[in-house]
Write a structure and sequence with these properties.
With about 140 residues, the protein is mainly alpha-helical. The protein has one domain (about 35-140): Winged helix-like DNA-binding domain superfamily/Winged helix DNA-binding domain (Arc Repressor Mutant, subunit A). The chain is built from seven helices and three strands. A hairpin with a 2-residue loop joins strand 2 and strand 3. Helix 1 crosses helix 2 and helix 4 (about 60-65) packs across helix 7. The chain is globular. It starts with a helix and ends in a 7-residue tail after the last helix.
């Protein structure tokens, strides 16, 4: 589905380009998407954010509290994760609530599976998960609306 979207997008941009060039560009765009996802997973803070979002939607304040990290750092990494199409944001008044983006490709689905299975032994991620569960159970700092 993602590949079809990329193809249609590219066809609209290069209606007069030869077919060989269009296929090469679509392949390049798909590769860029994979590269962006791998870069997103390669950063410790982004990996921690993705891991706590496995439990469901959290607002920025709750993510900050879960990871015990400065808000500007968390916001910067959330922007990167949005760009990589790994998280989605829902605005509610002044609050931004983040959740994992639904997998659109088999590759994306496998990365999310790995997030749940490959990192269960990392102590820092376990501590983040415990903290985020406490925050969720207490209702968090951001009103749900």
């Amino acid at each position: 589905m993602e590949t079809m979207r990329l193809i249609k997008s590219h066809q609209a941009k290069t209606a007069e380009a030869p077919a060989c060039c269009a296929a090469t560009t679509v392949q390049s765009e798909a590769q860029d998407s994979v590269d962006l996802m791998f870069r997103a997973f390669s950063d410790r803070t982004r990996l921690r954010i993705l891991h706590v979002l496995r439990g469901g939607e959290l607002c920025v304040g709750d993510i900050v509290a879960s990871l015990r990290a400065p808000q500007p750092r968390i916001s910067r990494h959330l922007a990167y994760l949005r760009k990589a199409h790994l998280v989605v944001v829902r605005k509610s008044g002044l609050w931004s609530h983040y959740s994992l983006a639904p997998a659109k490709t088999p590759f994306h689905r496998k990365l999310l599976d790995c997030l749940g299975k490959c990192f269960t032994e990392v102590p820092e991620l376990q501590a983040d998960e415990v903290q985020s569960k406490k925050i969720r159970n207490s209702g968090g700092c951001c009103p749900l609306s």
